Amino acid sequence: xxxxxxxxxxxxxxxxxxxxxxxxxxxxxxxxxxxxxxxxxxxxxxxxxxxxxxxxxxxxxxxxxxxxxxxxxxxxxxxxxxxxxxxxxxxxxxxxxxxxxxxxxxxxxxxxxxxxxxxxxxxxxxxxxxxxxxxxxxxxxxxxxxxxxxxxxxxxxxxxxxxxxxxxxxxxxxxxxxxxxxxxxxxxxxxxxxxxxxxxxxxxxxxxxxxxxxxxxxxxxxxxxxxxxxxxxxxxxxxxxxxxxx
Amino acid sequence: xxxxxxxxxxxxxxxxxxxxxxxxxxxxxxxxxxxxxxxxxxxxxxxxxxxxxxxxxxxxxxxxxxxxxxxxxxxxxxxxxxxxxxxxxxxxxxxxxxxxxxxxxxxxxxxxxxxxxxxxxxxxxxxxxxxxxxxxxxxxxxxxxxxxxxxxxxxxxxxxxxxxxxxxxxxxxxxxxxxxxxxxxxxxxxxxxxxxxxxxxxxxxxxxxxxxxxxxxxxxxxxxxxx
Lengths: 246, 227
Hints:
Chain A is α/β, with parallel strands linked by helices.
């Protein structure tokens, strides 16, 4: 059963047409990766799913329910179920690590502070930052900040996790750690949409890969096919160029 | 110099001291009311101006017009404008009231702009993260934006407050008995300008110095980015 269904969605930044007739459905527990050149609309697609970019036309269904993007309570519902980790981490600069992770579950979701605190500690230990609880974002490296951002998203107990180029800022030795956490999440049945330029990562973790170019979805295929025998010439050009550069 | 020393006992009579203290009180009240009203109302204007809801659009337009007008008119001109408007429509001829209203109107426009630019200085990514986690507009401001914006808002705001103490001197032009006017009165009574204006110079300093210290204290307390 599709958990997310996007039907001919179009979205704009001012006059710039960033998403063109997007058709995509994602099943529960699937890991779908979005690849494509910069500016192809991958991040915009993720932003649309949390209502940071409002589609101008088309329909989005979450668990078979149509989302009305102009309705605040609908937006609240999708944001409760979908969490996003941003490329630039977007940690709250005025809060320490622990507060960054625990503020939304306590203040917004109104959950028990003790329970949230335990979960935050558990998650921060899992991403290897148990000794940084009191640190502020500007005292952390990019990789550390990104792991805090992942813990922060997970502490919201989302059903779906969106990852926007999360490995691009990580040190090579940390990429594996993050990969391990993500594999674990996949095993737990977390649905994920991942934007990444790390092709080996994409190939390893994805159930399906979506190739986007110029705001459109060009091809959806399994990881083996998309890298070895893509249907579309544009996919072949992109993948060929990326793999050659490596 | 000798004349000056001779004058001092005559200058600091009980009557003159009370007269100056009252004038200082008027300067203080004008500044304090202006700053407090300006900070609260200006803050509200800044918050409204950043909203995106379509039905608040008329309010946003009015705020922009108001701010842009009163930041561009010289203080003295606004003061005279209110003075004559009040006389024409006969609401009140209380000079202190007219000066207070003018001061509030000006301070609101200026401080509103300082607070708005403070809010704008915070990167959009902080808003995005908060919005994606279901923070409302006001929760985002309270928990995330203002705690980071204080360090951008407070130094120019307190700079403005201190400048404002001195600007209230212009109220003497419509006859409000504040420090500058009091000095003129004493000067007209025959006391030397050096003594009259020298005294209010010290009194202005006594008013502005603690405010400056208070500003530094608030900066340390609120703007440390660590809360």
